[in-house]
Write a structure and sequence with these properties.
The chain is an alpha+beta fold and about 70 residues long. Helices cover about 20% and strands about 55% of the residues.
């Protein structure tokens, strides 16, 4: 295994269906413009309430990627 240097960005994904879909949304969007995505870490989870029910989830993630040589 070679040694890497990583950089991370922080994004917040949202979904009406659940936490996992919110995470996938953030990762998918990052993958459109950032190469070499390697890991993610959930740093915050929250939701929006409407009429006494969860209307949607918001999940903030740090996404790490390797820097190119």
């Amino acid at each position: 295994m070679s040694e890497h240097v990583y950089k991370s960005i922080e994004l917040t994904g949202s979904s009406k269906k659940g936490v996992e879909e919110a995470i996938q949304s953030a990762i998918k969007k990052a993958s459109e413009t950032v190469r070499n995505l390697r890991w993610f870490q959930v740093t915050d989870t929250r939701g929006y309430i409407e009429k006494g029910k969860v209307a949607y989830w918001q999940v903030t993630v740090k996404i790490g990627f390797t820097l190119e040589d």
